[in-house]
User: Which sequence fits this backbone?
């Protein structure tokens, strides 16, 4: 099963990158009848459009059908991650540089804190947020309980 998911990710990453998009995540739910594949795409310069999703979907489907490495049928869903996307992987913080996020984390005293700021910088072990008038805040990645995009609407 892992090989199937890895191949789906390889195919989608190549297709997405050829269209100026970034593959954020692949969700694969194998089933005996009708597996489900969800792909989440991102583009820094502008929103991912419906046309982007349709084009990637068509191209990925063609390759999946041609290679025929998955057992049974499948449903393919392609979308953007949404305005308030949960940040799931450490690498994503660099991708969302200069964007506003909300972070729930534990401080050194084990208190749970909730802050909203702009990603100022990412390092190997920590994230620096610009909290505006409150200055900069560095948060260790290991201390983050939850984070998501928090655009001002």
Assistant:
């Amino acid at each position: 099963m892992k090989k199937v998911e890895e191949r789906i990710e390889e195919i989608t990453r190549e297709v997405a990158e050829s269209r100026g998009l970034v593959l954020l995540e692949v969700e694969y739910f194998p089933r005996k009848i009708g597996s489900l594949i969800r792909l989440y795409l991102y583009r820094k310069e502008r929103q991912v459009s419906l046309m982007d999703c349709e084009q990637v979907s068509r191209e990925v489907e063609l390759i999946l059908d041609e290679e025929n490495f998955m057992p049974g049928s499948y449903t393919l869903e392609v979308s953007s991650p949404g305005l308030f996307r949960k940040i799931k992987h450490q690498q994503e913080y660099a991708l969302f540089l200069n964007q506003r996020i909300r972070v729930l984390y534990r401080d050194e005293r084990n208190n749970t804190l909730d802050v909203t700021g702009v990603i100022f910088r990412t390092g190997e072990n920590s994230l620096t947020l610009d909290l505006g008038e409150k200055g900069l805040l560095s948060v260790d990645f290991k201390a983050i309980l939850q984070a998501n995009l928090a655009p001002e609407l």
